[in-house]
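Progress note, project year one: complex with flavin-adenine dinucleotide.
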Amino acid sequence: MIKTDILIIGGGPTGLFTVFEAGLLKMKCHILDSLAQPGGQCIELYPKKPIYDIPAYPEIIAGDLIKNLLEQIKPFDPSYTLGETALKLDKHDDGSFKVTTDKGTEIQAKIISIAGGLGTFTPRKPNISNITDFEDKGIMYMIKDPSEFNDKIVVIAGGGDSALDWTIHLSKIAKKVILIHRRNEFRGANDSVASVQKLKDLGKIDVITPAQVSKLNGKNKLESIIVEVDGKENQIVTDYFIPLFGLIPKLGPIKDWGLNIENNAIKVNNSLDYQTNIEGIYAIGDVNTYPGKLKLILSGFHEAAVMCHSAYSKLNPGKKNTLKYTTVSGIQGFDGSKKVAKKSQLSKID
Ligand SMILES: Cc1cc2nc3c(=O)[nH]c(=O)nc-3n(C[C@H](O)[C@H](O)[C@H](O)COP(=O)(O)OP(=O)(O)OC[C@H]3O[C@@H](n4cnc5c(N)ncnc54)[C@H](O)[C@@H]3O)c2cc1C
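Model obtained:
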């Protein structure tokens, strides 16, 4: 059983910044996300797009924002459970909670911060009759550990950033990578399309377009696929088939936890601390709703700070919590690292 002060459900920008705010108040966090990597919508939906409304960044690429957040929270050393979905909630007599994931992992926490954004992203599956027979036996909808493809034959299908980026990355690891797309044009970022074209020209990967995978064959695991090109069927022997057709967000199992839900979002007390109708459970970022809510990254950051101060009071009853500027207090990480301003950098009124 994993034990922590705050269980953060959702590793998007809101969940990641929560670790920082909690860390300043000496609270430990565990992040649970159904995706294989942190970053939420920024990484899953628009990693290469520039964002223009993050304060003090006139422009920042979504992927870089997440990279910076991960760097910022490093001193507070959060633990992670990735690729698993929060399924079941139990409340213990001492007021703490136990969340069980779809893979059976149990996490106990005194505080839960739901930063679940638009919800769990479920993969859009291609319409192939026997696809479920081969799930985890050669069929994958997301990649957790690229080293698994070392020296293997991998077929990737899709035309967006995910399909292009993984084709480029796995071309360095796998024995052979074949990219299949139903159109001749790809939807991904121009530099990724150019890289895929270059790899194809160098003979490092195969690209088959316009084409579609129509059948899967194998005994105990996937052995080959049938690809339709110009109405003709071709068999390709492969170890893996990875359709990357995008993800559909759904609030998912959290919907059944007894929380007040409105329009697929969790109602919170926004005049105080973004707590839900269940004491000890907060909802912050895109997942919550209240009058005037703006579904923006900066809203999630603000809500994370307010939520952590409220959580501190719950975890430390009777202890006074005064707001300290980081310019004055510095940062003392759980790893022993310290960042403090030099005396000369502080103003006279510090
Ligand atoms: C194309 C696009 C462009 C955008 N541009 C901007 C912009 O310019 N500026 C701006 O401020 N905002 C922008 N946004 C919105 C912004 O991305 C969101 O406001 C932000 O991502 C919300 O962050 P979050 O951490 O609250 O949620 P998310 O980023 O959605 O992260 C939530 C995470 O929770 C996980 N999760 C959910 N339920 C569970 C569960 N049960 N178990 C485990 N994990 C779970 C999900 O897998 C996900 O990783 C844009 C959005 C899109 C789609």
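The mean pLDDT is 93.
Residues 9-15, 32-35, 40-42, 45-46, 51, 53, 85-86, 115-121, 252-254, 285-286, 295-298, 300 surround flavin-adenine dinucleotide (CB under 6 Å).
No further modelling is planned for this target in the current period.
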